[in-house]
Design brief:
17 helices; 8-stranded mixed β-sheet; globular; alpha/beta
Length: 483
């Protein structure tokens, strides 16, 4: 069933819009409302007759305003049904493309996926794993919890971070998304509520949705988490799980302090909510000295918390390995949920990851240095070529979360793609629409490519934010002048 916004509600939202000329002022106000998410996507707008009455304008004003919206990509007419909100390029462009790598091309700089190329030393790790593989060939090759050697190394890594863990508390999966799916299957039933941050990583929320859970958004502000608001959301929604990214939150890059983790754990305990901490970016501290002084895992404060880890961001996406760390009492539940999906991750890649983790002190600093160079190049380029875009420089992670002066994120990314650079607009990361004032730019390409990508983004921004970028408005204005 389509959602509908009433004429009275729309009149309240547009308020005292500019009226010189009125139809352009109304169209611009509606575009901002759609871009900011105050009017969601796929919502049926009031009929022209209804809106004419509550706004005290002529029918022609509303007709022309809707026409401008349609021609600029923020609305579409459906025969016999009315006018519905959308975004330039269509809803699939705003919400689905970031789940997939870009199509690529010789001159395309694809920053849609925040993932780096393989770090130095990976070939040698594969070679050493080849020598280890024969010892496993006499068995069936199924390890629902993971190859014991890798389980032991993951457990040891948690021990070193202040979270006592035995190998039996670790389940290795085919990537962090598979881990999220297993957890959602194990701990939620259709209709259960799950609190998720907004903005957040869209692939993870998709995994939770597939389990039938209902998402309850908790806003992550530009300055970080509002724990009072998050606590209120937990009390009011009575969720089964809270899916959180405390370490270099994706896409904002925020890092939750130890004090915040302790306070959050107390709020979770009061509402008996199980925390699921996504640590995919935990190893990517870029500020000097921070890697050795990271906050303790959220699970060290919340006894029943479940932790998800990933090799994709800290080592290489091609390994396709992740894991779940959970209380021993919950492992049977996780196994039963997992075997309905698969019987284990590939043995060979697990041996490669075990080797890399043995050499983490050699591999990760080189990886972080590459990311730091990319981050600094990206920050410098945005400051130079997009000086009106606002952002904070994260201490780690993989991306810059930029706030635009106007709700043109989707339009800018569509135009940027025409110029050969692919990035994700803010609505991709929104749980319930909105965030079209934002764009996420990963710093995972080379400094040279990042600088060129920002130049192209700046060209796209100049185009869509200028009057010349709005041919529909110009054409409509021309008709008024002629008339």
């Amino acid at each position: 069933m389509s959602r509908i916004v009433s004429a009275q509600r729309m009149a309240t939202l547009v308020g005292d819009f500019p009226r010189s000329p009125a139809y352009l002022g109304l169209a611009e106000s509606l575009r901002v409302l759609i871009g900011d998410g105050r009017v969601g996507l796929g919502v049926r707008l009031p009929s022209e007759r209804e809106l004419t009455g509550v706004l005290d304008v002529s029918r022609t004003t509303v007709t022309r305003a809707y026409e401008v919206l349609r021609e600029s990509g923020y609305a579409e007419a459906r025969r016999g049904s009315g006018t519905f909100t959308t975004v330039p390029g269509g809803q699939r462009r705003a919400h689905d493309r970031a789940l997939l790598p870009g199509l690529g091309g010789e001159d395309v700089i694809d920053l849609n996926c925040a993932a780096h190329s393989a770090p130095p030393g990976l070939v040698e790790a594969y070679q050493r794993a080849t020598e280890e593989l024969p010892a496993y060939l006499s068995g069936p090759g199924y390890f629902p919890l993971g190859v014991p050697a890798l389980q032991a190394r993951i457990a040891a890594a948690y021990d070193a971070r202040g979270l006592p863990t035995v190998p039996e508390q670790v389940m290795v999966t085919a990537g962090a998304l598979a881990a999220a799916s297993v957890v959602a299957r194990a701990f939620t039933a259709p209709g259960d509520r799950v609190v998720v941050e907004s903005p957040t990583y869209p692939n993870s929320t998709q995994a939770v949705r597939h389990a039938g859970a209902r998402l309850v958004p908790a806003t992550v502000d530009p300055d970080g988490w509002d724990l009072d608001a998050l606590g209120a959301t937990l009390r009011q929604s009575n969720p089964r799980l809270a899916y959180l990214i405390p370490d270099f939150q994706n896409p904002t890059g925020h890092l939750m302090s130890d004090a915040q983790r302790e306070a959050l754990a107390a709020a979770l305990a009061r509402t008996r909510t199980i925390a699921v901490a996504d640590e995919a970016h935990q190893a990517l501290a870029l500020r000097p000295g921070l890697a050795a002084a990271m906050p303790r895992p959220l699970a060290s404060y919340a006894d029943h918390a479940i932790t998800i880890g990933s090799a994709s961001k800290s080592y290489w996406g091609g390994l396709r390995l992740g894991w779940v760390r959970a209380p021993l009492a919950e492992m049977d539940r996780l196994i039963h949920a997992r075997i309905g999906m698969d019987l284990g991750a590939p043995v060979f890649e697990q041996l490669v990851l075990a080797d890399l983790m043995d050499r983490a002190d050699e591999v990760l600093p080189v990886h972080r240095a590459r990311l730091l160079a990319g981050r600094d190049a990206l920050v410098a380029a945005v400051r130079e070529h997009l000086p009106t875009w606002r952002f904070r420089v994260p201490d780690g992670g993989l991306a810059l979360w930029c706030e635009l002066p106007d709700a043109l994120g989707t339009a800018t990314t569509v135009e940027a793609e025409r110029r050969g650079v692919v990035v994700a607009p803010g609505p991709v990361f929104a749980v319930e629409g909105g965030l079209d004032r934002h764009v996420r730019i990963p710093w995972t390409a080379s400094p040279e490519d990042l600088t060129e990508a920002v130049r192209r983004l700046a060209s796209a921004w100049d185009h869509v934010s200028s009057d010349a970028a709005r041919p529909s408005t110009r054409r409509a204005a021309g008709r008024v002048m002629v008339a």
